[in-house]
Design a protein that fits this description.
The structure holds 3 protein chains of 3 kinds.
Chain A: H1 2-6, H2 28-32, E1 48-57, H3 64-83, E2 87-88, E3 91-101, H4 108-118, E4 123-125, H5 130-142, E5 147-149, E6 165-167, H6 172-185, E7 190-195, H7 199-214, E8 218-224, H8 233-242, E9 246-250, H9 253-265, E10 271-274, H10 283-287, H11 289-292, E11 296-300, H12 304-307, H13 309-319, H14 327-344, H15 349-357, E12 360-363, E13 366-369, E14 381-387, E15 390-398, E16 401-404, H16 405-415
Helix pairs in contact in A: 3-14, 4-5, 6-7, 14-15
Chain B: H1 2-32, H2 39-59, H3 66-93, H4 103-123, E1 128-129, E2 138-140, E3 149-151, H5 152-174, H6 176-186, H7 188-193, H8 198-224, E4 226-227, H9 231-246, H10 251-275, H11 286-294, H12 306-320
Antiparallel strand pairs in B: 1-4, 2-3
Chain C: H1 2-5, H2 11-35, H3 37-62, H4 71-84, E1 85-86, E2 91-92, H5 95-114, H6 122-142, E3 163-164, E4 167-168, E5 173-175, E6 178-180, H7 182-205, H8 208-218, H9 220-225, H10 230-256, H11 266-279, H12 284-313, H13 320-338, H14 347-355
Antiparallel strand pairs in C: 1-2, 3-4, 5-6
Helix pairs in contact in C: 2-3, 2-7, 3-7, 3-10, 3-11, 3-12, 4-5, 4-6, 4-10, 5-10, 8-10, 11-12, 12-13
Classes of the chains: A alpha/beta, B mainly alpha, C mainly alpha.
Chain lengths: ~425, ~325, ~350
C-alpha cells in the first residue's frame, strides 16, 4: 500500500539525476502513519534489480485530478507486482514508479519521454492527453521504449507507424460510433452535439455526429464551448430553440455536470449522453442528483464492476477514494508491461516488446489484445445509464452491435468463466495494512 | 423571441458576475495604475473558503435555513479574502511602487501561481461540486409554456451586484475615505501632502476590492455549482476585459463593461452562427449545397468563436475610444 | 554590452574570450548528454524561449509597447511550418523555404496587430494584444470547420524534421564513435541562429531605429516632435518582434513533430513576458539570462524537489510537482522584489531607477 509511495526511487546505476522521491499523499496526516519499510535504501543492489516504470500525466493544472487518478492506477499495479516478488531473468525484481508531471503541456512531452529514456526506464504508462502523448511518442519510439497510454484517445496516436506505442483505451472513432449506435437504438430523431474544443472532446463529438448522420439521424445543432467554461446557457438556449431529442456532449465531467444542470434549469428535457470523460461518479454532485438521472455515457472496455471487483476494492482500500475514470486503464497498462516482461523473462524493452505486441491478457477493463497499430483489438464499449446516482451498465457495444448488458454477461459467463479474474491482479497482502480512518 | 429574451437573461446574469470582479480590478487600477493579476485568484479563494464553510455546516446538520448558511459562508470568505488582498499589497506591490511599471505585473503573476498552488494543496485538484443548498426556483418570463425563464439565483446575482455597485458609489462619493481614495487616485503625492495616509488608502482599496472578490466567488460557485483551484484565471481575464471595455479605473465603466461583455457573449454564441450560415449561399456553389443537405447549420462562425466576439468588440471599441466606453471621466476614478 | 562586441580596443582579449565561449557552447551538449539527453532537450526549449524573449524584447523592451499576445506569432510560425511540411496537405517544402515564409507571415500578423493599436497606451494595449493572441489561438483551434485548414484541436502530426541534402535532423548518426542524437543536432542549429539573433538585436538597439524606439518608449509626443515617424516605427517594432516569433515557431514545429493549439495559450505569452521583465527589459543579455533562468528553474526543481524533501523530512510532505510550481511562483515574486529592474537591468533603466523621485504610479 503506502509502501510504494514512500520508496525513494533507488538510484539508477550511472545516473546521478534520476533519483526521485515520489511520495504522493494529499494529506500529511495520512502520510504520517506508515513509516516506509523500504524507504531506507536497504536492499543491496545485488539482491533485487530495480526496474523503473514511468508514469506520466498532468499532476498540476486544470485536469490534475485525472492525472493523479492515472498515476494511482499505475502505482497500485506496481505495488501488487512487488508483493509477488517476481523473478525475471533469474533475479528478484523490484519495480519502482517514476511519476512525472507533464502539465498537459505538449512541449513537455518529449522532455519527459527523454528523461525516461535517459534513466533507462523499462516501460512507460502515459500520457493522459493525446496532445502530449503524440509528440512524446516519437521520442519513445526513437529510443525503443514501449509506452502504453491509458487515456489518449486521438486516433492519430497509433497511426504514426510506431510499433512500440500502445493504448488500452478505445479510440475516439471506436467510442463515438458506439454511443451513436446506442442513441439510435433509443429512436431519437434530432440530436444536438456539443464539444469542449479539446482534442478529446472534438474528436469524440465528431465521431458521434458523423455516425449519426450516416444513420440518417439529424444533427440539428453542432455547438462548441471550452474546457474552462462555466457558463453554457448561451449555447443551451440555442439548442433549446431547436428542441432535439438528445444532446451529446464530448467533454469532461467538470464541464459536463454544470452543463447538464444548466440545461435542466432552462427546461431542456432531452436525453443527455456523454463520452467516458464525463462517465464518472462525480456527475450527480456536479450536475445535481435529479438532473443527471437517466443520463447516458460510455466507457471503453468492460465496466470495472463487471471485469474486476478486486481492482475496485484494492483501489478503494489503498486510496480511500473511487477511481475517477482512467485508473483501471493505467492499472491494466502497467500490468501489461509487467506481464510482457515476465513472459519474455527480461526487462529489456527490445526483448519483451514482441511479447507485448502479441499479449493476450485479462485485465480490470476486460480482455486485452493489441492489433497491428497498437490499438486494442475488438475493444468493447460499455454504455451506462445513471440510475439513483449510480452508473448502471446497460449495454455493451462490440463491433458495431449493441448487446444488452445482462445478455452480454450471460454470454461471457458461458464462454469464458475466467474472464472476471485478472491474471496479474491477485489481491495484494499489503492492502490489509490500510488504516481505517 | 423567447430565445432572445432568454439569451438576454443569461447574458445579464453572466455580466453581473463579471462586473463585480471587474470592480476589483478597476478600483486597484484607478488608484495605483496596476493590473492586479492575482485578483482572479482572490475570487477563487473566496469561493473555496465559502465552499468549506458550507460543507462543514451542511455536514454538521446545523438547522439553519439554506440562505443563512450561504450568508454565513460569505461572511467567512470576506475577511479571509480581505486578509489575502492586504497581504498581497503589503508583500508584493508596496515595495515595488517606484519600480518599472512591469515589475509588479510579474510579481502579480508569481503570486497568482502561489495562490493557486496553495489552494491546490488545501482543496485538492478535482473540481469541487458546490453544494446546491438553495433550492432553484424558476419563474416564467413569457406566456409561452416552454419559453424564457429566470431563476431565483439569477435574480439574486443581478440584485446583489446592483446593490454592491450602489454601495461602492456611496463609499467613494459620500465618505471621508472615499474622498481620500479619489484624491490619491488623482495625485498621490499631493494627496500625501494634504495629510492623507496614502499607503493606508491603497491598502483599504485592496481590502475593499478583495471583499468584493469574495462575494463574487460565492456567487460564481453557487450559480454554476462548481469550484476549481484554477477557476480564477478565466474569470479574472474576462473581468479584466470588462473593466477595460468600460474604461479601466471607472466604476460605472466596470459595471457597464461587465454587463456588455456578458450580453455580447450570450448573443454572440446564440446568433452569430445563424448570421454566418453558409447554406444561404447554396445557390452559388454546388459543393456547398451538397454539404448543406446533411448539415443545414453549416456556419462560418459558430459558438466556437464565443470568446472571439468579446475580444473583437473590445478591439473595435478601443480603436474608436482608446480609453474605453466611460474612460475619459478621469474624476470618476476610484 | 556594445563594448563586448567591439573588438577594436583589445582585440586579442576579446577574441580569446569569444573563442572560449564558442568552445563552451560546442562542448555543452555533450556534457549535458552525459548527464541525460533530456537536458539537451530542455536546453533546446530554453534557446527557443530565448528567441521568443528577444523578439518580445524588441516590442516591450525597446519600443515600450506592452504585448500580452506575443505567442500568437509563435503559433503562426509553427502552423506555417506544419502546414507546409506535413501530410496535412501533402506539401513537403524544405525548412529553409518555410522558415522565412513563416517569419514573413508572422510579420504581417504583427502589423495587423499593430495597426489598430497605434493610439492605445499601456494597459489598454495589454488587453488588446492579449485579445489578439486569444483570437489567433481560437482560430487555430476552430479552423477545422467548415473547411479544414488547421485540423483544429487534433493538431497536426508527422511534421517533417529539418533536412539538408539528405541529412536529417531526426534520428541518430554516429560521429567519431559518439552518438549524434537529434536534440544535439537541433542544439547546434539553434545556437547558431541564436547568436545571429543576438548580434542582430544588439546592432538594432544601437542603430537609428533602435534609438527611435527608445525615444518613443521614453516620450512618444516628444519623439514625434523630433521628427520620428512614430507610426512606422511602432509598426516596425511589432513586425520585427513578430518575425522572430515566427521563426521560433517554425523551429518548434520541426523539433516537436506535432503541434496543436494547446501550445499557444495565454500562459505562454505571460511566461515569455516574465522572461523579458525578469531578465531586464531592453537589455539583450538580460533577456537571454531571464529566458534561460525561467526555462531551467522548473526543470531543475523537477529533479531536486522530491529528493530534497526526502532528505529534509524523511518523507514527502507536499507533492513534488505542486511544490515545484509553488517555488516557481515564489521565485518570480522574490526576484522581482530584490531586482525590480530585472536581473541584468539595461543601463538606462538603472539610471532611471536611481533618479526617480518617490512618485506613486
Amino acid at each position: 500500500m503506502r509502501v510504494g509511495h514512500r520508496i525513494g526511487l533507488t538510484l539508477i546505476a550511472a545516473s546521478v539525476v534520476a533519483m526521485y522521491g515520489c511520495g504522493q499523499k494529499e494529506e500529511p496526516k495520512k502520510a504520517a502513519e506508515a513509516v516506509a519499510p523500504a524507504a531506507a535504501p536497504a536492499a543491496p543492489a545485488d539482491e533485487a534489480v530495480t526496474v523503473t516504470i514511468g508514469s506520466a500525466g498532468p499532476l498540476t493544472g486544470e485536469i490534475a485530478h485525472l492525472g493523479k487518478d492515472n498515476d494511482n492506477g499505475v502505482r497500485l499495479a506496481i505495488d501488487q507486482a512487488n508483493d509477488k516478488h517476481l523473478k525475471i531473468g533469474g533475479k528478484l525484481v523490484k519495480f519502482t514508479v517514476d511519476s512525472q508531471d507533464d502539465q498537459a503541456d505538449p512541449k513537455l512531452g518529449p522532455t519527459i519521454a527523454q528523461k525516461y529514456c535517459d534513466e533507462k526506464a523499462a516501460g512507460v504508462v502515459g500520457h493522459l492527453n493525446s496532445g502530449v502523448t503524440i509528440p512524446a511518442s516519437a521520442v519513445y519510439h526513437q529510443c525503443g521504449l514501449p509506452m502504453i497510454s491509458g487515456s489518449a484517445t486521438n486516433p492519430k496516436l497509433t497511426e504514426q507507424g510506431f510499433n512500440d506505442i500502445f493504448r488500452v483505451v478505445g479510440r475516439d472513432d471506436q467510442q463515438g460510433p458506439a454511443v451513436a449506435e446506442y442513441l439510435k437504438s433509443l429512436n431519437v430523431k434530432k440530436v444536438a452535439v456539443v464539444d469542449d474544443a479539446t482534442a478529446y472532446g472534438e474528436g469524440l463529438a465528431n465521431a458521434v455526429a458523423d455516425t449519426l448522420k450516416a444513420q440518417g439521424i439529424t444533427v440539428d445543432a453542432r455547438e462548441k464551448t471550452t474546457d474552462k467554461a462555466t457558463d453554457f446557457k448561451a449555447i443551451l438556449t440555442k439548442i433549446k430553440g431547436r428542441a432535439p431529442d438528445a444532446v451529446f456532449y464530448g467533454g469532461m465531467d467538470a464541464t459536463g455536470g454544470p452543463m447538464l444542470r444548466q440545461a435542466r434549469e432552462l427546461g431542456i428535457k432531452a436525453v443527455f449522453a456523454f463520452g467516458d470523460g464525463a462517465c464518472t461518479d462525480t456527475m450527480p454532485k456536479l450536475g445535481g442528483d435529479k438532473n443527471v438521472e437517466g443520463m447516458i455515457c460510455s466507457q471503453a472496455g468492460l465496466p470495472v464492476v463487471a471485469a474486476s471487483k478486486s481492482f475496485l476494492d484494492a483501489y478503494k482500500a489503498k486510496y480511500n477514494v473511487d477511481p475517477i475514470i482512467y485508473a483501471p486503464f493505467t492499472y491494466d497498462a502497467a500490468n501489461l508491461l509487467i506481464a510482457a516482461m515476465v513472459k519474455a523473462d527480461s526487462t529489456d524493452p527490445a526483448k519483451y516488446l514482441p511479447d507485448l505486441q502479441k499479449i493476450s491478457y485479462d485485465g480490470a477493463t476486460g480482455h486485452i489484445e493489441f492489433d497491428d497499430k497498437g490499438d486494442r483489438k475488438n475493444a468493447e464499449i460499455t454504455i451506462f445509464r445513471m440510475v439513483n446516482d449510480k452508473l448502471d451498465p446497460i449495454a455493451v457495444v462490440k463491433g458495431g452491435k449493441s448487446v444488452k448488458f445482462a445478455d452480454f454477461m450471460k454470454l461471457a459467463a458461458a464462454s469464458a468463466p475466467a474472464e472476471a479474474a485478472p491474471a496479474a491482479a491477485a489481491p495484494a497482502g499489503s492492502m490489509k495494512e490500510e488504516p481505517k480512518k | 423571441m423567447d430565445t432572445f429574451i432568454q439569451q438576454l437573461v443569461n447574458g445579464v446574469t453572466l455580466g453581473s458576475v463579471y462586473a463585480i470582479v471587474a470592480l476589483g480590478y478597476t478600483m486597484v487600477y484607478g488608484i495605483i495604475q496596476l493590473i492586479n493579476f492575482a485578483h482572479g485568484d482572490v475570487v477563487m479563494i473566496g469561493a473555496m473558503v465559502a465552499y468549506s464553510v458550507i460543507a462543514v455546516l451542511v455536514g454538521a446538520h446545523v438547522s439553519l435555513p439554506p440562505l443563512a448558511i450561504v450568508v454565513i459562508a460569505t461572511l467567512f470568505a470576506i475577511p479571509v479574502c480581505m486578509a489575502v488582498g492586504y497581504a498581497l499589497e503589503r508583500v508584493a506591490y508596496r515595495p515595488l511602487r517606484n519600480a518599472p511599471r512591469l515589475a509588479p505585473l510579474i510579481t502579480a503573476i508569481g503570486l497568482s501561481i502561489v495562490l493557486e498552488n496553495i489552494a491546490l494543496i488545501i482543496w485538492g485538484r478535482a473540481p469541487l461540486p458546490y453544494p446546491q443548498i438553495i433550492e432553484t426556483v424558476t419563474y416564467r418570463l413569457t406566456s409561452h409554456p416552454d419559453g424564457a425563464t429566470i431563476t431565483n439565483v439569477q435574480v439574486a446575482i443581478i440584485g446583489i451586484s446592483i446593490v454592491m455597485m450602489a454601495g461602492l458609489l456611496v463609499l467613494i462619493y459620500r465618505t471621508k475615505i472615499g474622498v481620500a481614495m479619489r484624491a490619491t487616485a488623482q495625485n498621490a503625492q499631493v494627496a500625501g501632502l494634504m495629510g492623507i495616509d496614502v499607503n493606508r488608502v491603497i491598502s483599504i482599496t485592496f481590502i475593499i476590492g478583495s471583499g468584493l472578490a469574495a462575494v463574487a466567488g460565492v456567487m460564481d460557485g453557487s450559480y454554476y455549482g462548481v469550484a476549481h483551484y484554477q477557476m480564477g484565471f478565466i474569470l479574472g481575464l474576462k473581468a479584466f476585459t470588462a473593466a477595460v471595455l468600460g474604461g479601466i479605473g471607472n466604476l460605472g465603466g466596470a459595471m457597464l463593461g461587465g454587463l456588455l461583455l456578458g450580453v455580447i457573449e450570450s448573443l454572440g454564441a446564440g446568433y452569430v452562427g445563424e448570421f454566418t450560415n453558409l447554406c444561404h449561399l447554396s445557390g452559388w456553389s454546388h459543393a456547398l449545397a451538397l454539404r448543406c443537405v446533411s448539415d443545414p447549420h453549416l456556419a462560418l462562425f459558430g459558438s466556437n468563436y464565443q470568446d472571439v466576439f468579446a475580444f473583437v468588440v473590445l478591439i473595435l471599441v478601443l480603436v474608436f475610444r482608446p480609453s474605453g466606453l466611460l474612460g475619459e471621466r478621469v474624476s470618476d476614478r476610484a | 554590452m556594445h563594448a563586448f562586441f567591439d573588438t577594436r580596443g583589445r582585440p586579442a582579449l576579446v577574441w580569446a574570450g569569444l573563442a572560449l565561449v564558442a568552445a563552451a557552447l560546442i562542448a555543452l551538449p555533450w556534457v549535458l548528454a552525459g548527464i541525460g539527453t533530456a537536458w539537451v532537450r530542455i536546453t533546446n526549449l530554453a534557446v527557443l524561449y530565448c528567441f521568443l524573449a528577444l523578439g518580445l524584447n524588441i516590442v516591450v523592451g525597446f519600443a515600450g509597447l506592452l504585448d500580452l499576445g506575443y505567442i500568437a506569432f509563435y503559433g503562426v510560425g509553427a502552423y506555417v511550418y506544419a502546414l507546409l511540411a506535413s501530410p496535412q496537405f501533402g506539401i513537403h517544402l524544405p525548412f529553409w523555404v518555410i522558415l522565412p515564409l513563416g517569419a514573413l507571415l508572422a510579420c504581417i500578423f504583427g502589423m495587423l496587430l499593430g495597426a489598430p493599436t497605434l493610439k492605445l497606451r499601456g494597459d489598454y494595449l495589454a488587453i488588446v494584444t492579449l485579445g489578439f493572441g486569444e483570437i489567433v489561438r481560437i482560430f487555430l483551434n476552430n479552423l477545422s470547420t467548415p473547411f479544414n485548414l488547421t485540423n483544429g484541436p487534433q493538431g497536426i502530426t508527422l511534421i517533417d524534421p529539418f533536412r539538408l541534402d539528405g541529412f536529417s535532423f531526426a534520428g541518430t548518426q554516429h560521429v567519431f564513435g559518439q552518438a549524434l542524437t537529434s536534440p544535439i543536432k537541433y542544439y547546434y542549429f539553434l545556437v547558431i541562429v541564436l547568436l545571429l539573433v543576438i548580434v542582430v538585436n544588439v546592432r538594432l538597439q544601437n542603430s537609428r531605429i533602435g534609438r527611435a524606439w527608445e525615444a518613443i518608449r521614453e516620450d512618444e509626443v516628444a519623439a514625434r516632435a523630433m521628427g520620428i515617424n512614430t507610426r512606422n516605427m511602432k509598426l516596425l517594432a511589432y513586425a520585427m518582434g513578430a518575425s522572430f516569433g515566427g521563426i521560433a515557431g517554425g523551429m518548434f514545429s520541426a523539433m516537436q513533430g506535432f503541434i496543436s493549439p494547446e501550445s499557444f495559450v495565454l500562459v505562454e505569452s505571460i511566461m515569455v513576458l516574465s522572461m523579458v521583465v525578469l531578465g531586464g527589459m531592453g537589455n539583450v543579455f538580460g533577456v537571454v539570462v531571464g529566458a534561460l533562468m525561467l526555462s531551467y528553474i522548473p526543470e531543475v526543481l523537477r529533479y531536486t524537489v522530491g529528493p530534497a524533501q526526502m532528505a529534509v523530512f524523511g518523507r514527502t510532505l507536499i507533492d513534488p510537482e505542486v511544490f515545484r510550481m509553488l517555488l516557481f511562483g515564489l521565485a518570480l515574486v522574490l526576484m522581482m522584489l530584490f531586482r525590480p529592474a530585472g536581473i541584468v537591468p539595461s543601463a538606462l533603466r538603472k539610471r532611471e531607477l536611481e533618479q526617480v523621485p518617490a512618485d506613486v504610479g
